Amino acid sequence: MNFHRCCFVLLAILLGGAVVSCSGDAPCPGFDPFCKREAKAVLKVKPSKTITVGETAHFDASESIYDDIDWFEFTSPIGNCNGNEKCDYVTTRTGTITISIKAKVDAIGIHSASDDRASIDLVVVDTTTTTTTTLASVQVSDNFDDNTIDSSLWSETDAQNRLNEQNNRLEINNPHTGTDTASLLSMASISTNVAVAQANFNWDTVGLSEAQGAVELYADDNNFAAIQTQANGTGNGNYRLVVKQGGSSVVDSTTSISRGQDVKITYEFSTTAINFWYWNGSGWESLLGSTPTHDLGSSLRMRLMSTDSTLFSHADNVFFDNVYFVDGDYDTSTPP
Hints:
single chain, mainly beta, Immunoglobulin-like, Jelly Rolls, 2 domains, eight-stranded antiparallel sheet, seven-stranded antiparallel sheet, 25 strands
């Protein structure tokens, strides 16, 4: 409900008394000469909070109190809905998508402006006969639990013997004795459908340089999508998201999600759409909040890596576990 016209105040001193006049969609309460209103955000959706790909979700904010209203998909504005009390939303994406509103009331009289927010987690599923779950085909599955790196799965780069499969995980130790990259690159590659790289990714400490550990969808050193340790001196132990295309960094975003999570990267070859995810305990939630499109090439591999440098302190030890490289996306915590 838009109250932008509500409650203009006419004050007049008449015979020692105040004359109050209010008009609009709702009168001022009592004899308050300064009409006070508080923003209120109320958001509803039909037909339900779960829809299928291509189905329209009808969002309704008509019970809200506002002078202006903004709509968001995650943190990105939904421009065609801003200012409207209703919004029809259609997507081809799957998973959980957070739609929210911010209701704002202007300052009036002695009362300051106010705002209120409301959100709905919309679950979008694919019910066609060719769902991502049906198409998912595991190319690599490795829990690193036998103390030997499997040469049938991985190509190993380790000039300083820093790669160790131990403690039921892959450990990359950074001794600060030189500058190099230690990595495992999957023998398998994916060139159709959706490439997915998933791992439980953790590390000890974060320091000051561009040195990092990372799980990547990797074409070459100039074209990849990566979830990295967060470097640049931040030291807060959260994930950093990087996409490099043609040698240029086209995505470089820090997150508020702490290390030690199950994370995955998805790349859709037909659309070049890239996204980054973490398992929140009940579903995959986007780390980025948007789906950029960048062409990484016609074929991708999975890479687990860490760089080392004598110049800076950084991720001292990087750990990987529960690793999957999959042709096709999935909504479950591990590939079906």
